[in-house]
Write a structure and sequence with these properties.
Blueprint (H helix, E strand, L loop, with lengths): L1 H21 L5 E4 L4 E2 L8 E4 L2 E4 L5 E9 L15 E8 L4 E11 L5 E8 L3 E10 L10 E11 L7 E7 L1
Antiparallel strand pairs: 1-11, 2-5, 3-4, 4-11, 5-10, 6-9, 6-11, 7-8, 7-10
Length: 169
């Protein structure tokens, strides 16, 4: 009986490990469709499918969307989250297009912008998940604000450039 009890306990512990030890958690997330569109570069070119922002079927050029990063770390009470990674999930299926994702910091007093990191897409028929890394001391919500800019570019309608989601952790 003790053996069965121990075996049951061990199997439950192992089953719970992927949820706690191996699961990827993100402190800040956003779907592609919630970006603030740059009126000079794309508002009439876009369509939304579920969470995805993409070109409508007849447009090409550039679409620029911006996503404000809010402080969600420690219920938003810590002003310096130890985040180190920007993630993007996107589609870039053609050499005639690209998806560029950039994380920026803006000084609250001067308005000076600093580029923190960039993700550049690669051509692939499947959806992609890519990341860029930065120092764990980068974020300081007491003195700065942060935003992610995504630029979808395509020179022809055969390229299916899309942004699905963004995350920081």
């Amino acid at each position: 009986m003790k053996f069965i009890t121990r075996l049951l306990f061990l199997s439950l512990a192992l089953a719970a490990m992927p949820l706690s030890a191996f699961a990827q958690t993100h402190d800040w997330t956003s779907i592609g469709g919630t970006g603030i569109l740059d009126p000079k570069a794309g508002a009439f070119k876009v369509t939304f499918t579920g969470p995805t922002l993409k070109f409508n079927s007849t447009s090409s050029g550039d679409i620029i969307a911006r996503y404000p990063v809010t402080n969600t770390y420690g219920s938003g009470t810590s002003k310096t989250p130890p985040w180190t990674t920007l993630w993007a999930t996107f589609k870039d299926n053609s050499p005639n297009g690209s998806v560029t994702t950039r994380l920026y910091e803006i000084d609250k007093c001067t308005g000076n912008e600093t580029l923190i990191c960039t993700i550049n897409s690669t051509n692939n028929l499947s959806d992609q998940c890519a990341s860029c890394s930065f120092s764990s001391s980068t974020f300081d919500f007491a003195n700065n604000t942060y935003w992610v800019e995504v630029m979808l570019s395509r020179s022809g309608t055969s390229a299916a450039e899309e942004i699905h989601s963004l995350a920081v952790n």
